[in-house]
Design brief:
By secondary structure, this protein is α/β, with parallel strands linked by helices. The protein contains twelve helices and 14 strands. The strands form four sheets. It has a seven-stranded mixed beta sheet, with helices on both faces. It binds glutamine. The site of glutamine has 5 residues, from loops.
């Protein structure tokens, strides 16, 4: 449940961060960078706070940011979207997801996701009073079978929530698979919400936004943000794009979730997006090296991690170590080895056997932090 004993149930990420702090473990759990984004962007925000805007932004977001997002998406992903009607600024990708689910899904209706899934997707479905239908993916490539996803559609299905690049697996879904899903959903009157928050962090392969593959523009909504791309996860500057009438419906919900989002951070991101190309290239290269460092470290202790195509995370099966309970292993690693992962099982239904022996480890951490983590693991192994 979302809460128990009169308090919110901590998310798995908060829970593991608290365990890491308690045991002074190297925290490779929660996915946030330990090095803040580019100086230039930070200065833009500082200036924006000092000079304003500091009062409520328009509900749809600052016009300058909507414009910059539309241009950025044209430049990188080749889509043309109207900044006035087809772009909504949100408080991070999380709000884009929750507001979209609440806008379109009625209690008792069904929403399909891949399993494992990001926790906020499941929570949004629960908040809407809807049924969460899960279609598992498996190692080594974690690609979903489009026919299995479409076979899960019933007359109560309202929405398919996809996440590419995918958290926690790092899979990037190829265009042919996505085209088939969009076509199948369009035929069945199902909307597709695509969480693309890791869009810029692809190391092998290429990101394609689902909006570029939607022939009518009426089936797909996409969400992304500045937080992951520019290593400012706490800023919560996100955006949703879709057909004008869909964006209007989500905006109606956003109005009563947060009303509007922080204007100074919006202004900073708006000014930075057009000049962000060089940083994005450096950041990709840096994260790729950190991914490889973590992969090598895990191999050195006899594990066989997957090499993710994208994102912040490596996943690894503990079966070679005779472990079947990832939650127990995550706590044991934290206590005894001084390294904190996240159990992938926590991103699956509790009834599910999917990936029950898998851990997720974040590589969006400085190389010396990753090296220290891997040394501790080697001493423990
Ligand atoms: N997106 C981050 C992760 O997957 C966590 C964000 C959060 O703690 N809610 O680790």
């Amino acid at each position: 449940g979302l809460w128990h004993d009169g308090a919110p149930t901590p998310t798995i990420f908060e829970r593991m961060s608290a365990a890491a702090a308690e045991h002074e473990a190297v925290n490779l759990g929660q996915g946030f960078p330990d090095r803040d984004g580019p100086e230039q962007l930070l200065r833009l925000a500082a200036d924006a706070v000092l000079r304003g805007p500091n009062q409520y932004a328009p509900g749809a977001g600052l016009p300058a940011l909507r414009q910059a997002v539309a241009m950025h998406r044209t430049e990188h992903w080749g889509v043309t979207e109207d900044p006035e009607s087809e772009v909504l600024v949100t408080t991070g990708t999380t709000e884009a997801i929750t507001a979209t689910v609440l806008a379109f899904v009625e209690p008792g209706e069904e929403v399909i996701t891949v399993e494992p899934f990001y926790d906020a997707h499941a929570a949004a479905i629960a908040l809407a009073g809807a049924q969460h239908v899960r279609v598992p993916v498996s190692a080594p490539d974690f690609q979903p079978d489009p026919e299995r996803l479409l076979a899960a559609v019933t007359d109560r299905t309202r929405l398919l929530v996809l996440n590419t690049p995918h958290n926690p697996t790092g899979a990037v879904y190829p265009p042919a698979l996505l085209r088939r899903l969009i076509e199948g959903c369009a035929e069945r009157g199902v909307l597709v919400l695509s969480d693309e928050v890791y869009d810029h962090l692809v190391y092998d392969g290429e990101h394609v936004t689902l909006r570029a593959l939607d022939p009518t523009g009426e089936t797909v909504l996409t969400a992304s943000s500045a937080g992951k791309s520019f290593a400012v996860t706490g800023w919560k500057v996100g955006w949703l794009t879709g057909a004008a009438r869909h964006v209007a419906a989500v905006r109606a919900v956003k109005q009563y979730l947060t009303f509007s989002s922080g204007p100074a951070y919006q202004q900073a991101v708006a000014a930075y997006l057009p000049q962000s190309g060089p940083f994005l290239a450096e950041q990709r290269a840096r994260l790729r090296r950190q991914r490889d460092l973590l992969v090598d470290g895990l191999r050195a202790v006899g594990l066989e991690p997957t090499v993710p195509q994208a994102g912040y995370f490596v996943t690894v099966d503990l079966t070679p170590w005779g472990t079947t309970d990832a939650m127990a292993a995550a706590l044991e690693w934290t206590r005894s080895a001084g390294v904190t992962p996240v159990p992938v099982s926590a991103l699956c239904a509790s009834s599910s056997e999917t990936l029950s022996s898998w851990l997720r480890l974040a590589f969006c951490k400085e190389p010396d932090v990753l090296a220290e983590g891997m040394q501790r693991l080697a001493r423990h192994a």
